[in-house]
Amino acid sequence: VNRTPRRKADRDWDERRVLEWSILKCKADHFQQGIADRREARVNSRSPLSSRALRRFTTTSIWLVAGVMLSLVVPWAQLPSSAQAFSLSTSVDPDIHPAIDIVHLPPSVLVEGERVRLEFYFACAIDAPDPSAVCAPEPELFVAYGNGPFHLVDLAVEDRDSLTVHWAEVAASDEAGAHLRYYIAATALGLTVKAPVEGAFEPLTLDDLTPVDVERLEGSQFSTELTLPWGSATAAVGLDVGPEQAAVGPPAFDVTPDGLSFVVLDDVNTRVLILKAGGAEIKDFKLPGRTNGDIAITESGQIAVLDTVGVISPASAVPVPQVRIFASDGRSDAVVPVFSDQPEQIERDLSVTNANGVNLRPVAEDLTPRGRIAQRQATEFSGLLVDWRGGKEIRIGDTEFARGFVISSRNTLGLVPEIFRVGEDLYVVVFEDSSMFRVLWFSFDGRVLGGGTLPNDAFTAFTPAGRVAADALGNVYVLGSTQEGIAITKAFSPVEVQS
Amino acid sequence: MKFRALLLIVGLLAGALAIRPSESNASQVCWSRNDALSYSYTGRYEDYTLGGGWWNDNNTHDSGEGPDCSGFSYKSWSLCSTSGNTSVCLHSIGQDTHGPYNAQAFRDGCSGACADVCGSGTGAACGASSYGSTTAMDAFARGPYAGSSYGHIGMIYSESTGGYDNIIEALNSTSGVVLNSRSYRLGAEYDGVTRKVWVTSNCI
């Protein structure tokens, strides 16, 4: 250690300071001792048992108790912990795969004056190696009526068997009869997302619903229109089966309006099959890859394929779903990106319905593709809507004619993969349960016109709406699969429809 | 003064230990359905590998990447490698672990680590009227079919339109991990199962 030699003046100054300090210390000790003596005298005068040890014990106890008391007011639960440190993934897309997914199934058919429960929860695209990272976005629900301003609604929180659900009950209409509009916002780590991404959910709200009372759905014959074995030959469909995976075959099909031809999305063989009833005149054309999606014959006779697997593109950090439009000979007419989370169904008017039952139009009236922003603005509840309420009460809405129906039954009718309207007045609803499909035909005034049943063979996984179709006469077709192959069965409409 | 400060700190710590028995005594990490949802959400768009277990979160199919259906459920539920253990065992998404259960084992209750849902009993379908009996991150598992030991399992992500379920599942090697509307709750060969214990209290 290098020490700098100190000057004598410094040493003298130090010695003087030590001396002064000693004198002060002595005075202070004397002063303290005096205080202590006086305290002891005071204490001794009150309690002959007290002693210095007792005082020390008392003092120690007081400080310990103070510490314990302080611990009661410390908000331990709110203190940060290392397990909560995380960030949101950047491998996301605001429309297709948001960083914070607001999981919410919006009600689609409401009645004026009723109250409706809106509930939602969250999933987060957490970008953290620590899987114990906790994502708890701050939720907000904004409600408006008609063209009025949005206002914030208080939310309740419910723990549903360890699922945290946020909810609020709101009126379907206000006192003036204006209808509900709402959106949900969620904020975490400085990021705010919204559902829907643009605009608001606007359920079809009607002053009344026409009741459709269903006792039994039986009768009506059915026939097998087409069977194909598994395989890769022209007159076969592909099957992808193996351990620890779903069995996959054709996920969807459609029928021409005259009911004489079918298109089958042969996904495993990456092609579309075009067949006549009975299996004659089979044609096919190739697809660029698997789609895991849906297929439809458009109003102009083209074949539209919804590719939910999507393609990587500069437009997004996730694969973008596509609608591929083909001429009837298989020539590709257009490829249109779909900026939507979980598109499920392609309609004959080229609109796409997502898993929430919300409809978007990726293609403009002149068949040109819409961009991302334009697609957000063209997202709404439109066409035929289903509001499934537990299977014994199902609401059906028709935005084109502003009609609403409530189908009720003493027995569970099943899940609803698809609804059709034939012409202006005939509605067809298909119900699925474990063993069969039930078909209900009813008129615009709620009269039940007939019922029918079809087998439900589901050896492979299907897109629910993709395996049901109807022709222009109101006949209903269902795609089924067994270990041998696929079959398309037909339930005949009990109503004669002018084609 | 230092002694008093020391006493205060000792008291503070003693108090903290005394009033937080539910947290400090916890020997395991919390794992709620919300946690499992977010975890599974990171797997979406990733690849599938039979017997595999790891994935990243870049939304592309990388070589060797991906869980199979049962490995995806095992990791999303944070189950442990010891059969029947109901504790929470965290696995990072990049950890290449599959777990001891195949789809059939899930359907049969994971040696006690899983429980039946829908009230249908182990090995029986849920059916169309079972919606009120299931919650997000319950799963539907099917046992052998096609005369082999093949099985499949997918987890409920949310309710879909028409009463169907949005299922997040490691589908197959072509599609990878996907989120699709499915009718598994109707299938006679599928049974509803869930993690036996979701840990949201007495945990850290």
Q: What is the H/E order of chain B?
A: HHHHHEEEEEE
- Helical content band of chain A: 10-25%
Widest sheet, order of strands of chain B? 1-6-2-3-4-5
**How much of the residues of chain B is beta strand, in percent?**
15-25%
What is the mean predicted local confidence, pLDDT of chain A? Answer: 86
What features would you describe in this structure?
The complex is a heterodimer of chains A (499) and B (204). Chain A is mainly beta. Chain A has helices spanning 8-46, 52-73, 372-377, and strands at 87-88, 100-103, 109-111, 115-124, 126-127, 138-145, 151-153, 156-160, 163-171, 180-188, 191-195, 204-206, 210-213, 222-229, 253-255, 261-266, 271-276, 283-286, 294-297, 303-311, 320-326, 332-337, 343-346, 352-354, 359-360, 379-380, 384-388, 393-398, 403-408, 415-422, 426-432, 436-443, 448-455, 468-470, 476-481, 485-491. Chain A has a 4-stranded antiparallel beta sheet, with no helix packed on it. Chain A has a 4-stranded antiparallel beta sheet with strand order 7-6-10-11, with no helix packed on it. In chain A, a hairpin with a 3-residue loop joins β30 and β31 (426-432). Chain A is globular, with a radius of gyration of 36 Å. Chain B is globular, with a radius of gyration of 20 Å. In chain B, β3 (152-159) and β4 (165-172) form a beta hairpin. Chain B has helices at residues 2-19, 21-24, 33-41, 69-76, 103-107; strands spanning 114-116, 139-142, 152-159, 165-172, 176-182, 190-195. By secondary structure, chain B is an alpha+beta fold. Chain B has a 6-stranded antiparallel beta sheet with strand order 1-6-2-3-4-5. In chain B, 22% of the residues lie in helices and 18% in strands. In chain B, α3 (33-41) crosses α4 (69-76). Classes of the chains: A mainly beta (499), B alpha+beta (204). Chains A and B meet through α2, β4, β5 and β30 of A and α1, α3, α4, β3 and β4 of B.
Entry keywords:
heterodimer, A: 499 residues, mainly beta, four-stranded antiparallel beta sheet, 3 helices, 39% strand, globular, disordered N terminus, B: 204 residues, alpha+beta, six-stranded antiparallel beta sheet, 6 strands, 22% helix, 18% strand
